[in-house]
Design goal:
There is one protein chain. By secondary structure, the chain is an alpha+beta fold. The chain has eight helices and 25 strands. The strands form six sheets. Strands 10-9-8-22-23-24-25 form a seven-stranded mixed beta sheet, with helices on one face. Strands 13-14-15-16-20-17-21 form a seven-stranded mixed beta sheet, with no helix packed on it. The chain is globular and about 65 Å long.
Amino acid sequence: MGRAALTIALAWGMLITCQSRELLDVIWPDKQKSRDADKDLKFIMPDIPFHNHRVKVPGIVKYGQEPGNVEATVIGEKDLVYKYVYGKDVGGRTYQASCDKYGWSEERSFKVPGDVDQLPISIGLIGDLGQTLNSSATLKHLRHHHPDLVWHVGDSSYADNYCSDASETYCKLSSDQRRWDTWARLTERLFSRVPIMHIHGNHDREMQTNHNYRTFAAINARYPVPTDPRVINTSPNYAATYLDVHGLKPERFVNEAKVQPNNSYYSQRLPGTHFIVLSTYLPYGRHSKQYAWFQAELSKVDRSRTPWLILMFHASARNNYAVHFKEVEEFMQLFEPLFYQHQVDMIFNGHTHAYEFTYPMLNYTVNPCGPMYICIGDGGNMEGLARFFIDEYPPPYCDNPGKFAPPIYQPSPSGKAVLTFQDGKFCPESQPKWSLMRDPSFGHGMLTLHNATHAEWKWYRNQDGEAKSAHHVYIERTDKCSPERPKRLHTVHAALNQQPLAEQRR
């Protein structure tokens, strides 16, 4: 009996994606060693013969609302099947789904979150997951906490860290697409039973020069998150239309007012929260489609029904690690005033492979009415952890900011470095007052929205196991926040900041 990688994704309603498992050439380094080292990897490495070709056959999904009664059928032209279950009656129901490819897969059961008024809700947070032993541990621990849904803050398979010929040497503008298949199988055990929401990360870009600089092709095809759920748009984006790829500034956005990106930003009304996804890797300038859409989306927020306003984008906007420091200052100068004006409660980021939790803040200063920034890019990927705090291991540009330059994968409207200074310094010389907790360890987070005013956040390190949280915070929000009525944080428990233990393996 064949199996399939089945993923449940949310975009207003529910999207069922069935990815075939058979007839794919799956290559893993030291396969037997990996199989013996972590029992979870056995799940994604079946003992099937490898093939060097693909056979295109129809994919079939059957689904229903009762165990064993999966009579509704969707047939795809290839081995990827999409199906939206859309409408006001979707929420709060349990669905069964099976995928057909050379035999039926195991039947999966999952529940879609209910109406916006139905709190509490428990949300799992992971980012920069990749596919290593640490990734497997993160997924195992997250399953233990039984989230109602999962948010993944970008950088999924890290297929772009491998050449297209499956060697293990990083290749510029190349990618081993089979790693998307193995990543789907790694995450299937969780993502086929819990709704998952994706965003774009820089490793999901995978620019292809031989296809008009096509970008985000794989993630858009496999995990589409369209703005309009009635239209399943799996199209890639084309950097030749929005970047100066043939000019002197390939990191500069062009044609911002004209380009309509695919599968990049969207919103979701979940129980108790209006959730908005943005992208710093596609045009976001003042005249861009994304900026106009974001302003319009903010005007739709109804705090009487969705009191929590939560944002997510991949790039880490506020962090104190020596990597990815101040990479999106131009984005923040444009968007941060809107975050503050509309009283965004929390902003989740990835990108920096570590954990950090800030106080409510505005412009690098503690402000009781600003958003909290939670960096959760510590899922377990092959590149390892961001081990060094910038105040302890300052790069050369800290003393000479003129040497600072954003990476080429992070475009901006100006294509130039935007330098900001706090207390006359480009880099902090100690942990800033706005940084509540930071720890370079692999792990995951759990956010529970209890009611309209109270939420609970727990962060778990992989080395501590499932039961013990390393950071535990209660959050109290107020309507129309002011210095007299501020947000409040109560830290229940915070482990000491420390370097990751040697047992955290790549």
